[in-house]
Write a structure and sequence with these properties.
By secondary structure, this protein is an alpha/beta fold. It has ten helices and 13 strands. Helix content is 34%, strand content 16%.
C-alpha cells in the first residue's frame, strides 16, 4: 500500500484511487488479545485464509479494557493508563493485516462486556461494578467522555512500533468505529449527541480516515421499514435511530448487523428488506451503509445458500463482514464459526 492509498467517501460510495471500492470481509475480534497471549498464529492463519478467499477487510478490536488481573492482554488498565506491551500487540495485528493487503475497520470500545466495554468505563467512574442500566452514563457523564477521548487520541497519535507509521497516517486502516453495537434504551437522543460529539472529535484529530458508528442498524421509525413481519428492531425499543444517525455530518459510514432470528424476523423477505432499507436510507442521506456483521448457526450447505441470498440482497452495499471466519483451533463461537473445511460457505464467500 502506498501512503496515498486511503479509502475515501464520495457521497454514498467508497472509492480507492478515485475508483469504486466495495468489500467483503470478516470480523476478527481476537486480533490484539491472541497476539498478547502468544497466539499470533491464530491471527496469521485467519488473515491468510481471508486473503486466500479474496476477502479484503477485517473488522477488529482496537481496545481491551478488561481488568488486568483477569486478562493479561488488557490495554487500558485504568483511565489514561495504557500497557505498552499490549499496545505493541495491536501494532503487530495491524502490521500482519497490512502485509497481506488487508484493510482494517478498528473499533474503540464495545457496548457489551467483552474486552471491557462501556460498563468498564462506568465502573471506573462509580468506583464499583456498574449495573446494565447504569451503562447509559457512558454517553452523558463528562468525565467518562473525557476518558474515552483520551484513549481515542492516544491511538490516533500512536506510532506503530512495527511499521513506523502513525495510526492517523496508516492507509491500511479503512475506518474508525466508535464502538460495537451501542444501545441506549429510553434515550436515543443522548446516543446521537454522543455520536456527533465523538465523530467530530475524531475528525479534528484525523482527516485521513472514515468514521463509522458500528451499530446494529436499530431505528425508531418503523414507517420506514414497511413490510417487516416484526418491527422490534425499528420501533425504538433499543435506543437506536439509524435514520437520524446518517444525518450526522462527520459520520461517513453507518453499519447494520444481520441476525434476523434474534429480532424475530425471517431469514428471507425480512432479511432482504432490512438490508435494502438501510442501504436506501443511508444513500438518501449521501452516506455509506455496510453490513458490519452477518451470521447464522447452520450446517455448511444450508448456511452457504442463506449467505448467497443475503449477499445478493446486499449487492449494492459498500461492504459486508462475516461473523466469523476462524482458525481451526478456535472452537467456541456460539455456532457462528466458519472454518476452511466448510467448503460450500467458503465457495460463496470466494465467489463474491
Amino acid at each position: 500500500m502506498s501512503p496515498n492509498e486511503f479509502v475515501r467517501r464520495q457521497g454514498p460510495l467508497l472509492t480507492l484511487n478515485e475508483k469504486p471500492f466495495r468489500f467483503l470481509g470478516n470480523n476478527v475480534y481476537f486480533n490484539q488479545a491472541d497476539i498478547a497471549y502468544g497466539l499470533a498464529a491464530n491471527v496469521e492463519e485467519t488473515f491468510d485464509h481471508m486473503a486466500a478467499l479474496g476477502l479484503t477487510v477485517a473488522r477488529c478490536n482496537a481496545h481491551n479494557d478488561n481488568d488486568p488481573a483477569l486478562d493479561p492482554a488488557a490495554i487500558q488498565t485504568r483511565p489514561g493508563q495504557y500497557d505498552e506491551a499490549n499496545l505493541v500487540a495491536l501494532d503487530q495485528s495491524i502490521a500482519l493485516a497490512k502485509a497481506r493487503d488487508l484493510r482494517l475497520i478498528l473499533r474503540f470500545t464495545n457496548y457489551w462486556e467483552a474486552y471491557g466495554g462501556v460498563r468498564r468505563y462506568v465502573s471506573w467512574f462509580l468506583g464499583r461494578p456498574a449495573s446494565p442500566r447504569e451503562a447509559a452514563l457512558f454517553f452523558t457523564e463528562p468525565q467518562i467522555r473525557f476518558w474515552f477521548q483520551d484513549y481515542v487520541r492516544s491511538l490516533i497519535d500512536r506510532v506503530n512500533t512495527v511499521t513506523g507509521v502513525t495510526y492517523r497516517n496508516e492507509p491500511a486502516i479503512l475506518a474508525w468505529e466508535l464502538g460495537n453495537e451501542f444501545r441506549n434504551p429510553g434515550d436515543p437522543d443522548a446516543l446521537l449527541r454522543w455520536t456527533a460529539e465523538m465523530a467530530g472529535f475524531i475528525r479534528q484529530l484525523d482527516a485521513n480516515h472514515l468514521i463509522a458508528d458500528g451499530g446494529e442498524g436499530f431505528d425508531d421509525a418503523p414507517q420506514l421499514y414497511t413490510g417487516l413481519s416484526n418491527r422490534h428492531a425499528v420501533n425504538g425499543a433499543d435506543g437506536g435511530s439509524f435514520h437520524r444517525l446518517v444525518q450526522i455530518p462527520e459520520i461517513d459510514m453507518a453499519s447494520y448487523h444481520l441476525y434476523p432470528t434474534n429480532w424475530r424476523m425471517n431469514d428471507s423477505t425480512d432479511a432482504a428488506l432490512y438490508i435494502q432499507r438501510h442501504e436506501q436510507i443511508a444513500r438518501d442521506a449521501g452516506k455509506v451503509a455496510y453490513m458490519g456483521e452477518f451470521g447464522k448457526p447452520l450446517p455448511d450447505p444450508q448456511r452457504a445458500r442463506l449467505f448467497a441470498h443475503w449477499l445478493s440482497a446486499a449487492r449494492d452495499s459498500a461492504g459486508a463482514l462475516l461473523w466469523q471466519l476462524l482458525p481451526d483451533s478456535k472452537l467456541d463461537a456460539e455456532g457462528y464459526q466458519v472454518y476452511s473445511r466448510d467448503t460450500e460457505t467458503c465457495a460463496v464467500l470466494r465467489a463474491r
